[in-house]
Amino acid sequence: MIRVFEVRVVDEDGSQLGVMRTADAMRLAQERGLDLVEVAPLASPPVARLLDFGQYKYELTKREKEAKRKQRSVTFKEVRIKPKIGVGDFDTKVRRAIEFLEEGDRVKIAVQFRGRELTHPQIGRDLLDKFAEQIKEHGVVERPPLLEGKSMHISVASTHKPKVHEPTPSAAAKAHARPADEEPGADEASGKIEAAQEASSEETPAVPAPPRPEPDTGAASTGV
């Protein structure tokens, strides 16, 4: 409820109606079948608008849901490699990191040392430098290789914008439509079977029953 004495009124189409008493503005809203909604309470005087409050709430909720649906938080992914990794596995890890970066995520590439491998940290540093060279078109290394405990890692920030995956209209249509060559469901199949049985019973003529024999009365004929 608007408690101030006067408000600056905006029409339903955005036109300025000027400053008027709140009671007059509410009366005008009732005459037009609309509501008087305070949209800028901190203004001097506060701004109120003539609108359909139910429709306004619906559109506001719809916009908020749409904004949340399009939001995508950037996550931190990790790719682990070993000092003695093979060429094929290394290339696979590089492709996986590129996929993360293309999604807009940050990636941590870590080399895991075991046992005496810690005595040769340069091997891990060379691997990370090579890795960074392979993904430089998709991300930027935030800091040089850092050895922490039994692992050495680098952090890479993506140069891509976070992607938002939305279903296409064609995919949504396919989800609700059954292809023409798809097998019918159980209900449809049973319906076709019943229809065929009814048609078969109508087309096949009934076989007449054989004549029943005359009952034996037990009377015997006598000779003359």
Count of β-strands: 9
End-to-end Cα distance, whole Å, is 127 Å
Number of helices: 6
Structural class: alpha+beta
Would you state the CATH class of one domain?
A: Alpha Beta
CATH topology type of one domain = Translation Initiation Factor IF3
At the fourth level of CATH, the homologous superfamily of one domain is Translation initiation factor 3 (IF-3), C-terminal domain
CATH architecture of one domain: 2-Layer Sandwich
Give a verbal description of the structure.
- This protein is α+β, with helices and mostly antiparallel strands and 224 residues long.
- Among the domains are: 6-55, Roll (Ubiquitin-like (UB roll)), CATH 3.10.20; 76-158, Translation initiation factor 3 (IF-3), C-terminal domain (Translation Initiation Factor IF3, 2-Layer Sandwich), CATH 3.30.110.10.
- 38% of the residues lie in helices and 22% in strands.
- It has helices spanning 22-31, 53-70, 87-102, 121-134, 169-176, 186-203, and strands at residues 6-10, 16-21, 35-40, 47-51, 76-81, 106-112, 139-141, 146-148, 151-158.
- Strands 5, 6, 7, 8 and 9 form a five-stranded mixed beta sheet that branches.
- A hairpin with a 5-residue loop joins strand 1 and strand 2 (16-21).
- The radius of gyration is 41 Å and the shape is rod-shaped.
- The chain starts with 5 loop residues before the first strand and ends in a 21-residue tail after the last helix.
Briefly say what this structure is.
This protein has 224 residues and is an alpha+beta fold. It has helices spanning 22-31, 53-70, 87-102, 121-134, 169-176, 186-203; strands at 6-10, 16-21, 35-40, 47-51, 76-81, 106-112, 139-141, 146-148, 151-158. The termini are far apart.
